[in-house]
Design goal:
Length: 420
């Protein structure tokens, strides 16, 4: 990590200049007081995400972050002088259900834009639906590479990272510090497949070998057979590429079997919600984190965390909370810049949009890259604190700006085409 920006470093001078400019723009975009009349029609954002099923704990946090942002925006005057409304539908982690709910939001509620999704398969389905119906979609939480790669389209932007950015955040350190023999436990859908492909490329390029792996169905309660096979392969690193409740169940059983005593446990993603649901004995491992509430020397972060916790009964914001928060603010900023709710115009305005510091809440100024609509989100590689108590459960080792580890637009494979 010696070549990366230290997590405790100050924002660079160039970043401060960009951030300051964005902050000034945000202050102009959001007037200080609400100005709409009682009959003013709201700008509607349809949010499709998981409130039930395997991904519910993550989807619910994203929804809270989005609602927190909408309340904040409305308190400062709304968007284009109109109130902002977030309408939520549950996709239950199913692509078909997600599209059905998106259709309901469009047909019955006449939403102006879409956001949400945690399950990457749902993200891909909503992306196609939104583009076909001429509506902007800001994906808050589906990580699969191809969403802003070969499957990209004009209507889709993404706030969370790609799986390539996540895996690049710690693959080199894991190989160097813990060994070259890897075994994967991978959730059997688009997200897990993408993570495994990316880690495999990175680890083998570093001289490592993949000694085995297993694809695990979503919603698996019993990991014992998978863990027996993993232990028998004698890897240096057992890499968990799971999501939602599956990650929680796997970590509990790894701890029960004592596998973590002999094999280093790691992965591309471990989330505050999951850590909070685990017993203290299961607090270990090396991970990439996409956002964290306790960032020293970064303006606005601690204030945001305190306001959020006060609103939600002591629950601290997670990366998922931030995804929802940033996505709603990004739509609002782009609509104000476009002076329109027309999705094509707003999409054009979002290309190159730099998140202002009070929205970015990290030590850089993330931008939605024009070529593929991917936010250049920074990564926070680190570990889970063995003795940590909620919410102070993560030890971050470094902050890595996303643009330094992301694939180039050409590597991502996006060919952007707008409606004629």
């Amino acid at each position: 990590m010696s070549n990366q920006n230290n997590f405790r470093g100050e924002i660079g001078r160039r970043g401060l200049i960009k951030a300051g400019a964005a902050l000034g723009a945000a202050s102009l975009l959001y007037p200080p007081k609400p100005s709409w009349g009682a009959s003013e029609s709201p700008i509607k954002i349809g949010m499709v995400d998981s409130t039930t099923g395997n991904f519910a704990v993550l989807g619910q946090s994203t929804i809270k972050g989005a609602q927190f942002a909408a309340a904040e925006i409305n308190k400062k005057g709304g968007v284009l002088g109109r109130p902002l409304q977030v309408l939520v539908e549950d996709d239950a982690g199913s692509p078909g259900t997600g599209v059905d709910k998106a259709s309901r939001l469009l047909d019955q509620s006449q939403v102006d834009f879409f956001t949400g999704t945690t399950n990457s398969a749902v993200s891909l389905s909503i992306s196609q639906y939104a583009a076909a119906h001429g509506k902007l979609f800001v994906c808050s939480g589906g990580h699969v590479d191809k969403l802003t790669g070969p499957a990209c389209n004009w209507a889709t932007f993404r706030t969370c990272s790609t799986t390539w950015i996540m895996t690049s955040g710690n693959s080199g350190t894991l190989v160097k510090e813990f060994g070259k023999k890897w075994y994967f436990l991978t959730t059997d859908y688009a997200f897990g497949h993408s993570e495994q492909d990316d880690y495999t490329k990175q680890v083998t390029a570093l001289g490592g070998t993949i000694v085995g792996g297993a694809l695990v169905p979503v919603g698996t309660p019993d990991f014992s057979s998978y863990l027996i096979q993993a232990r028998a392969a004698k890897p240096d690193v057992l890499c968990l590429l799971l999501a939602g409740d599956d990650q929680i169940n796997a970590m509990k059983q790894i701890t029960q079997f004592g596998i973590n005593k002999d094999i280093h446990i790691a992965g591309a993603l471990f989330e505050l919600e999951q850590i909070a649901a685990l017993p203290q004995a299961a607090h270990y491992g090396s991970w990439s984190f996409e956002w964290y509430w306790d960032q020293p020397n970064v303006p606005h972060v601690h204030d945001f965390a305190k306001r959020y916790a006060a609103t939600y009964g002591g629950q601290y914001p997670s990366a998922r909370s931030w995804f929802g928060y940033a996505s709603i603010h990004a739509i609002a900023l782009a609509a104000e810049a476009a002076k329109s709710t027309d999705s094509v115009k707003v999409a054009k305005a979002m290309e190159g949009l730099v998140l202002p510091p009070e929205v970015a809440l990290q030590a850089s100024a993330p931008v939605y890259r024009p070529e593929d609509h991917q936010l250049m989100l920074g990564m926070f590689p680190g570990t889970v604190k063995p003795a940590g108590k909620y919410p102070d459960v993560i030890k971050v080792d470094a902050y890595i700006p996303g643009a330094t580890i992301a694939q180039t637009p050409e590597q991502a494979g996006c060919k952007m085409v707008y409606p004629s």
